[in-house]
Amino acid sequence: MKRKLNEQDVPEAIQDGKANNKKSKTAAAPTFADLNLDSRLVQAINSEKFATPTPVQTKAIPLALAGQDVLARAKTGSGKTLAYLLPLLHAILARHASDGKKVARTTALILVPTKELATQVTGALKTFTAFCAGGIRFENISRKEDPAVTKARLAEKPDVVVATPGQASKWLDQEALQVDGLRHLVIDEADLVLNYGYEDDLQTLSTALPPGVQKIMTSATLRTEIDTLTALFFPDAAKPAILDLSAEEAAEKPRLAQYTVRTAEADKFLLIYTIFKLQLIKGKVIIFVADIDRCYRVKLFLEQFGVRGCVLNSELPVNSRLHVVEEFNKGVYDIIIAADENEVVGNEGGKRKQKKRKAEVEAEAEAENNTATEAQPEQAPTADDATQLTKSSQKSKPNQRKPDREFGISRGIDFRHVTCVLNFDLPGTPKSYTHRIGRTARAHSPGMALSFYVPKIEYRKHKPTSIEQSQHDETVLAAIQAHQAQQGGKVEEWNFDMQKLEPFRYRFADALRAVTRIAVREARTQELRRELLNSAKLKRHFEENPDDLRNLASHDGPSHAVRAQPHLKHVPDYLLPAGGVTAVDVGNVGLRREGTNGLRKRRAFNKARGKGRLAQGKGLDPLRSLNARGRGKK
Question: Domain check: are 14 and 96 in the same one?
Answer without folding.
Answer: no
